[in-house]
Amino acid sequence: MKVLICDSGILINLSLNGLLDILEKLKKDWNGKILITEQVKYETIDRPLNILRFKLGALRIESLLTKKIIELPSSLNISNEEIKTKTKELLEIANHSYKAKEGWVNIVSEGEVSCIAIGSILKEKGHEVIIATDERTIRLLFEDPKTLEKIMSKHLHQQVQFVSSYNDYSQKFNFIRTSEIVYVAYKKGLLGIENKQALDAALYATKFKGAAITFEEIEALKKI
Amino acid sequence: MEEKKHVGEVIQNAIKALQNFNSQNLKELSNQTIHSASLKQDSGSITLAVLIYTLSKIIERNDHLKVKNWNKLSKKIVQWLELSKDALEKNNLEKYEEHLKEARKTLSQISPNLKEYIKEVLRKAEINKASRIYEHGISMEKTAQLLGITQWEFADYLGTRRIEEGYSTFDIKKRARIALEFFS
Q1: A183 contacts in B (CB within 8 Å)?
Q2: What is the C-alpha separation between A139 and A145, in angstroms, rounded?
Q3: Segments forming the whole domain that contains residue A183
Q4: d(CA B131, CA B158)
Q5: % of chain B surpassing 90 pLDDT
Q6: What's the pLDDT tens digit per position in A35-53?
Q7: What is the pLDDT of residues B37-93, one digit of tens each?
Q8: Domain that holds residue B83
Q9: For residue A153, is it within any domain?
Q10: Is the ipTM here above 0.95?
Q11: How many helices (H) and strands (E) does chain A have?
């Protein structure tokens, strides 16, 4: 089965841009599941429900969960315990990947890594997985860890070294961002805005709400 | 050891800058603590960065003139900063963090009419510092966690800043094709 795993940033981005309905429309004619982990649920629903400024957004995401547009891993018989164990293992590796003079640099946390953990479990079970994340760090860690090494060295004003213990995991996953989700929705005519500039507007909107995408990439996407 | 010496110097210079109403200097000192905050991710470095940045903003906007007992308040903050420096020199990290928190508390207990405003400046300082830590390569969620802010506020703020994102790690056309095929 095809499974799209969404991290917090994706749902937050879509919610802040009023584009959550895209997931509902994409899901309609698609034989796949959109999953979130308990950690992502906490950050996108449980926690913001207590913050007036983001309560409406949280309720909208909760409604997607109620309608089973997005689902929890239990819908594929994967227990939280299994995810927790895998998350712990991967978190340990990820946070021991970059070494500075003073020691290891903690670069990621549980929520982000829980998406990789569930992805890893699902891949082992034979599912086709894509991880949707707007996160620059996690994407670089998998796709181009040396670039992350350069960024850290530059900003920390010292040589940070990438220690390749993460190599087993690199190139294992495909990643997409909110921008590509919006792009797919546009191509399928699901954006719901009849205007030539709709794609341009929607792509930049995703950038301005946290998607790590360059201006050049947006321009390139528009031309495809 | 070197880092501890550096943080001690930052505190000392921050005290001077605060006494001289030098907002620019305070801002620069706040940025200097970000390297330490990104590396060590200890609450002390983070509190120090947020505190110094908040003070720089208050002075930059001349808002300290609106505070009736600013001199008294400023002296109290200086005392806490000195205590934190002493504790750091004695390697008592617990006390170091505790004193910095007290300095922050002193600032947030400002006169009632400015309390909400200071709270807002502190919150904005937290988000600003988060974006600086994020620039260092630390993930969004990790950074938000360190500063005690939500990813919602952070995503909203990051969009308004031109953070260096020029890392096309994967061909955009290929990524788009993968996404399209996946949803077919």
Answers
A1: 176, 179-180
A2: 9
A3: 2-92+110-144+169-223
A4: 7
A5: 56
A6: 999 999 999 999 999 999 9
A7: 888 888 888 999 999 999 999 999 998 888 888 899 999 999 999 999 999 999 999
A8: 2-182
A9: no
A10: no
A11: 11, 7
Contacts of B150 in chain A (CB under 8 A): 43, 47-48, 51, 54
Count of structural domains, chain A: 1
Q: A163 lies in a domain? A: no
> Does the beta carbon of B75 lie under 8 angstroms from any beta carbon of chain A?
no
Looking at chain A, the whole-number percentage of residues with pLDDT higher than 90 is: 80
CATH of the domain at A183: 3.40.50
Q: Say whether A108 and B139 touch across the interface (CB within 8 A).
A: yes
Query: Which chain A residues in 138-167 lie under 8 Å from chain B, judged by CB atoms?
Result: 138-140, 143-144, 147-148, 151-152, 155-157
Is the distance from CB of A5 to CB of A11 less than 8 angstroms? no
Q: Parallel, antiparallel, or unpaired for β A2-6 and A128-132?
A: parallel
Which ranges of A45-109 would DSSP assign to H, the alpha helix?
A: 52-66, 80-94
- Number of independent structural domains in chain B: 1
Chain A residues in contact with B42 (beta carbon < 8 A): none
A209/B140 Cβ within 8 A: no
In a domain, A51, yes or no: yes
Residue A99 is assigned to a structural domain of this protein:
no
